[in-house]
Amino acid sequence: MAKVICAGLGPGDPDLVSLRAARVIGAARQVAYFRKAGRPGQARRIAAELLHPEAVELAMEYPVTTELPVDGDEYNDALAGFYDDWAGRLAALPGEVVVLCEGDPFFYGSFMHLYVRLRGRVELEVIPGIPGMAGCWNATGEPITWGDDVMTVLPGTMPEAELVERMRAADALVVMKTGRNLPKVRRALAAAGRLDAAWLVERGTMPGERVLRLAEADPEDCPYFAIVLVHGHGRRPEVRA
């Protein structure tokens, strides 16, 4: 039986890859990773210095990314076929293959779609990684939650009205999948009365990292790797001089 190991790579800085993941990647002779067609791939970039010189690389190129509506049948059918195909390819490989995954594989990671297809067909191991949002909130220099704060994580792809409702109810707030959704996210935060407290972190822990108040950002110019944050302000002991 083949063995598939998914190595979580963390938020983007290669120095934040775990020792366990680094050891497994460095020993691997078969390495697979997701990427947009024609691009080198973010996971490949993070792990570049760790790859064994004799490793065979398998680039899993998405058939579609932002070209179609994410809630449409055509989008879902294209990705379902893509994951079905690659699950079959990985299961048929001899020996061990390491799949690279940004962030943590079980937190909005593409590997999850392979995992549910491979379960029971191959031996599986998942190595956790630091979630991208953790790298981003550390980049702001402020704690994200205090005391009894409830942290809410929202995908920016949600309908605007639902974003507003959930933003109003949150203490600390993380909005992922921003990119082209940033204008909608900004409107929702304004409607929820949270815009002035919101931060935008672009390319957190990566080259070109930028941290700024969301109210000061251009909503029409947002990279794919960007997260919106609102810090909690819950219970805490008083700071004494």
From TrEMBL:
Gene3D superfamilies in alphabetical order: Cobalt-precorrin-4 Transmethylase, Domain 1, Methyltransferase, Cobalt-precorrin-4 Transmethylase, Domain 2
CDD domains reported for this sequence: Precorrin_2_C20_MT
EC assignment: 2.1.1.130
One GO BP annotation of this record: cobalamin biosynthetic process
Enzyme class: transferase
Recorded metabolic or biological pathway in which this protein acts: Cofactor biosynthesis; adenosylcobalamin biosynthesis
GO MF annotation: an example: precorrin-2 C20-methyltransferase activity
Reactions performed catalytically: precorrin-2 + S-adenosyl-L-methionine = precorrin-3A + S-adenosyl-L-homocysteine + H(+)
Keyword Transferase appears in the UniProt entry: yes
Residue span(s) of domain Tetrapyrrole methylase: 3-213
Keywords: Cobalamin biosynthesis, Methyltransferase, S-adenosyl-L-methionine, Transferase
Cited NCBIfam families: cobI_cbiL
Protein family: Belongs to the precorrin methyltransferase family.
PANTHER family recorded: COBALT-PRECORRIN-2 C(20)-METHYLTRANSFERASE (PTHR43467:SF2)
Subunit structure comment from the entry: Homodimer.
Protein name, UniProt field: Precorrin-2 C(20)-methyltransferase
Protein source organism: Rubrivivax gelatinosus (Rhodocyclus gelatinosus)
